[in-house]
Protein 1
Amino acid sequence: MLLTDDIKSLKGIADKTAEAFYSAGLFNLNDLLHYFPRRYESLSEIRPMAGISADGYYTLEGRVSGEASSVYRNGKNMVQFGFSDGSGSARVTVFNMPWLKKSLFPGRELLMRVFAKRKGMQLYLSQPKFLSREEYEEGLTHLKPVYPLTKKLNDTMLRKAVARALPVAEDIKEYLPEQVTAERGLMSIPEAIRKMHAPKDMDEVYDARRRLAFDEFFLFLARMELLKEGEEKPASSYVIDNGKDSFERFSAQLPFELTNAQKASVEDVFRDMKSGYCMNRLLQGDVGSGKTVVAFAAALAVCDAGHQAALMAPTEVLAKQHYDDAVRMSEQYGLGLKPVLLSGSLKAKEKKAAKEGILSGEYNFLIGTHALIQDDVKACDLALMITDEQHRFGVRQRMSLAAKGEAPHVLVMSATPIPRTLGLILYGDLDVSVINELPAERLPIKNAVMTEDEHEKIYQFIYKRISEGRQAYIICPMVEEGGLEDVTNVTEYSERLKKIFPPHVRIEMLHGKMKPTEKNDIMGRFASGECDILISTTVVEVGVNVPNATVMVVENAERFGLSQLHQLRGRVGRGAYQSYCIFVAGSDDENLSKRTKERLNVLKETNDGFKIAEEDLKQRGPGDFFGLRQSGLPYFKIADIYTDAQLLKETKQSLERIMSSDPESLEKLKAALKEKEEMTYSDFHGICL
Ligand code: ADP
Ligand code: MG
């Protein structure tokens, strides 16, 4: 067996099963070995029911007593059956498994792990997991990994396949010098992979995880360092010294006064662009702090000086919005901006015209998604490259951009607040401006954390706001970012909502799988008030600005990271109206929902992104496998940029030592990185650059 062997080479995996793995992005054995459990379950010894007083998970053994029943309630199936073990009896409830009813005949023996809750004398059981005798015995001595599943890929398939593939983990080569593994107490990669999949206890998981997280950080940082290596601050042929003049004309016409922080940021930018060196600046400011104006001011200065500027956004929707704003302002204020939109929905002919217009200088402000600007455009005189919502792009992309052509000035904008130490590491090569205040007339957003059974109240509330002329977003539960299931989710949700609301309420939906034109049309209608409720996946997460929308509802809020929720919330509270954000915590799991509530309460208590990031860090201990991935930072599969801050520091130190005083290891590292460049991302232990 080889790491690069197809999943199919495993015993017991035929074409159909292989398809299930492929659709989850698992193609070869190496992919599979890097597909890690989300959490681990432990089994306790079988207990008599009579002795159970505290709520929690227990292992029980007994028999089905009486007929099982199956009913549908609120579209959910519920199977119930009696269960007794000689010491006591209880009712067991199972959701969404209607097929179970048949097999649960009276007298059937059952061994199960189940959640027990005591109310008075009565014991209630739910979420049973039926076990074979072998599973039980195995479970007593080993933790059971719980893998992230898809519709096609089930737990048994995964566990079997992983077990068969494990021996080949031995082939994964070490790339770290021994000194590093020794000084940091890191186990070998094969051992770490083995322990992630088949740990005896949580300590093993932590140690294994630590090794893999180290790798993620290390390779990430190494890449960044090597990219930077030898780069002096490059001189710029674009000396833009007319910033102040064009800015004064622009700002005098704006309907609002810039905040002091905005003004200071604009000054930073102008100073950089005048310096004779390339600007390489990060503009950090919480959602709604008004970064766009700063970007426009910079672009305007460059265009007025006779050059071109580009503004890249992570989504089509956001690019279109920026374009519309640029056109509007340019006309309204008589600015010298000649914007062009490079959108995925352009027809070949329009695209050609756009490109020609860019080359001839007919357009001076290029706005589009990253891919479009990057791949298609040879701007004739590009002096400034702005990236909005920088955290959506990898660091690598940022680097490759700066290295492009005539070395334009670079301004990147991000709403993701990161603690200082991490910021220094992640954005170590950038100068930073911070917008740390919101425009003055904003009313703070009012927040609520609600549960799934309060939907009626929520809809009534939305209806009221709509009747007052406002608009609402509803973010649908996300199954998997960009996955097909999200489409069904959003579609079903909006069908359901259309039945609940009166017909004059205009409801539309938006998801990532739509064509760009379609997305833009819908967003356009929402922005112009022709749609009242927008049901969407997280495609609206970044940047979208519709000040008339005052309600944001996030379904299944527990599935999102705090910072991501904060970003979503940032879609409202952008105008003078009172805005509201409702986080709906939906979970059948009592323990989870309690924790969820605690987490979400942080959002309820503060609207300050920096505080939220800090709180996030405090709340989530290491080894938190329920931990929701922070969005907005380079994506790490295992490592957590907040909770593993200490490890990140250590990684950085180890790397620095190698770079400064261990040329032999450095060469090896470079070779390893180069080799890995040609492989899939799991070869980096999950680094996704
Ligand atoms: P973000 O920083 O999240 O990108 P935007 O730039 O989209 O925020 O700005 C959010 C909203 O605030 C926009 O409608 C913008 O016109 C408005 N805005 C920006 N600066 C100010 C200000 N100084 N006073 C009042 N409103 C402002
Ligand atoms: Mg923005």
Protein 2
Amino acid sequence: MNDDRRPIALIGLMGAGKSVVAERLGQRLRAPVADLDALIERESGSPISELFAREGEEAFRRREAEMLERVLTAGIPVIACGGGLVIEPAPRDRLRRDCRVVWLEVSPGEAARRIEATRGRRPMLGNGEVRSRLGELLREREALYAEAAELRVTTDRRTPDEVVDAVLAELRRA
Ligand code: S3P
């Protein structure tokens, strides 16, 4: 299934479904899953919105790059990355080199619908209109997602299980 021994890392915009797809991918592969955001929250004892408010974005980027290192060292086979992990060159290069990186693509409109209820937990959205902010983040980041990713999988109009099927099919084909 995943003959290549490198871990599968899911990247993409908030609302792409990285966490839920990683969870289900882990179930299908009977493999442990690491969700970097969830691990950072658990370890720090603070929600990400609070970490951003208290320490700022730069400190959060350091935390997530460090968490990626630890998860890779531990050999966890399925990783859900935060949407901004690709911003810094070091984690981006590490992903590209040492993981099978799948970019879960989502349109800003669909992502906005999916995350509407949890926008308060998402400091990068600010207070403006969610869809246009997501469009802006996608424009800023799409070249970085593309650089890190080996594969792309569309998620609009697909259920998480359909996305898992597509991810597994793409991984097998590649
Ligand atoms: C961020 C995405 C979030 C989280 C943090 C910053 C971003 O993760 O890491 O709020 O910069 O896009 P998800 O993509 O899992 O929501």
